[in-house]
Amino acid sequence: HFNRSTQFDSLLYDAMGLLILWVTAVIVMITLRFLRQPVVMPADMLLAVRAGLIYLVISCLLGIWVGVNGDLRMQARCRG
Fold it and tell me: pTM of the predicted model, to two decimals?
């Protein structure tokens, strides 16, 4: 995590971050569809899917926060 020791490592880290943001956006769109549109499935299954997607979105957002916060801390540590 937070490996920016070479330009290649920094490029990989940035590419990873962009892919994570893209996947998170797709997950948010899927979650919103399941919350807004009527879905034909048993009520308990629908509740499980919706709750699982909400927890997944929360986890993704926490992961993004950890990544940004950790990267900023590493940059501050490297600067002095």
Answer: 0.82
